[in-house]
Design brief:
Helix content is 36%, strand content 14%. The protein has 377 residues and is of the alpha/beta class. The protein has 2 domains: 112 residues, Aspartate Aminotransferase, domain 1, CATH 3.90.1150; 249 residues, 3-Layer(aba) Sandwich (Aspartate Aminotransferase, domain 2), CATH 3.40.640. Strand 3, helix 5 and strand 4 form a beta-alpha-beta unit. Helix 2 runs antiparallel to helix 8, helix 3 crosses helix 8 and helix 10 packs across helix 11.
């Protein structure tokens, strides 16, 4: 995707390492750092800087909307995906008899709000088979009491990508449930078609190469009344300083209601710079550049004595490949000694390949793993 010159210019920190851990932390391009510096300059203006802050806010919501296939008015920005999910749980006001479907490949943020002791709904678990979520298994769980189906588009655990259009069709056929999709591990890495999704959530510090402190929310206007967040605040109020403000509360419906208080403008500046960068490159181009690296990585790992956790179906591959090995921690140590960065947790190793990665990164990873495994045997 990048020439040697543009990679050096945009991502100078990558020259000394094979960075394969974007699923945990993305490496921001230089324009993101410049945007954070611009925020500092604008903040020096005090209250006069607010006009500049809100210009970035409006631009960022428009950029997120283009990525989600929504309008700016259908986008909200909060502090992180966990906050977004907790606000969503407040909005649903689940009652006894309601059912929520989660799955065992999902990140905790999307599952734990429904498992709290004060959640009245019954939680049903969509369990993976052969490290993939099978739609026929979900079909058996759906019914008239299903209020919500929530899932990540791409699993943080092993990179399995849900067949989204088929998932939407199944949920609509078998229930009246709302469908929430976390696109954190897909946004900025693979092209998205989120048609039919009722709630879109994403973090900002991974594949879109921005900073911490942002949680993206998208809700189609037709579903806005299904997601009215009953949270105290002021930014989420149509008229927070009106004459009746101490008598009643009127919450904004839909995604704008997920921004409860003052926006994190520094994160917004970073977000807008990152999305502008990604749009200039093109997510389709990123996918074309990175997919061969993912395929090469899968093929190489399949030849090694490890347990591959990522299904090799081309239709469900995104940017993450994962495997298990009883000596994963020792493998991690060998990789880091060679300045290769991957994630290691409880015997599972996760490799994440983005548009700034190169064939040399994959070759270095596989060669080092092969040597380390032979030495540890």
């Amino acid at each position: 995707m990048l020439s040697a010159e543009s990679r050096h210019q945009d991502f100078p920190g990558l020259e000394a390492m094979a960075y394969l851990n974007t699923a945990a932390e993305g490496i921001p391009p230089r324009p993101v750092g410049e945007a954070i510096g611009q925020y500092f300059q604008d903040k020096q203006l005090g209250m006069d800087g607010r006009e500049l802050h809100f210009a970035q806010w409006d631009a960022a919501r428009s950029s997120v909307g283009r990525m989600f296939g929504l309008s700016a008015d259908e986008v909200g920005i909060c502090s992180c995906s966990s906050e977004a999910y907790n606000l969503a749980a407040m909005a649903l006001k689940l009652q006894s008899g309601d059912e929520v479907i989660i799955n065992d490949l999902d990140f905790p943020a999307g599952a734990t709000p429904w498992l709290q002791g004060d959640c009245a709904a019954t939680v049903r678990l969509w369990q993976a088979r052969n490290w993939a979520l099978q739609l026929e298994d979900l079909a058996a769980l759906l019914g008239p009491r299903t209020r919500l189906v929530t899932t990540s588009l791409v699993s943080f655990y092993n990179g399995f990508m849900v067949p989204l259009s088929e998932l939407v069709a199944l949920v609509r056929e078998r229930s009246d449930a709302l469908l929430a999709v976390d696109v954190t591990q897909a946004l900025g890495r693979v092209p998205l078609d989120l048609t039919g999704v009722d709630l879109v959530i994403s973090s900002t510090h991974k594949w879109i190469l921005s900073s911490h402190g942002g949680g993206l929310v998208g809700i189609p206007a037709a579903r806005a009344q299904d997601w009215v967040v009953p949270a105290g605040g002021w930014f989420n109020q149509p008229d927070a300083f009106g004459p009746d403000r101490f008598q009643q509360v009127d919450n904004r419906p839909g995604a704008p209601g997920f921004t409860v208080g003052m926006p994190n403008f520094m994160a917004v500046y970073a977000l807008q710079a990152a999305l502008t960068y990604l749009e200039s490159v093109g997510v389709e181009q990123i996918e074309r550049a990175a997919r061969p690296l993912v395929e090469t990585c899968c093929q190489g790992l399949a030849e090694l004595p490890v347990e591959l956790l990522t299904p090799l179906d081309q239709a469900t591959l995104a940017g993450i490949v994962a495997f298990r090995h009883p000596q994963a921690e020792q493998l991690q140590t060998r990789l880091r000694a060679n300045n290769i960065h991957v994630m290691c947790q409880a015997g599972r190793m996760r490799i994440a390949l983005h548009g700034y990665n190169t064939p040399d990164d994959v070759d270095k990873l596989l060669t080092t793993l092969k040597t380390a495994l032979a030495e540890l045997t």
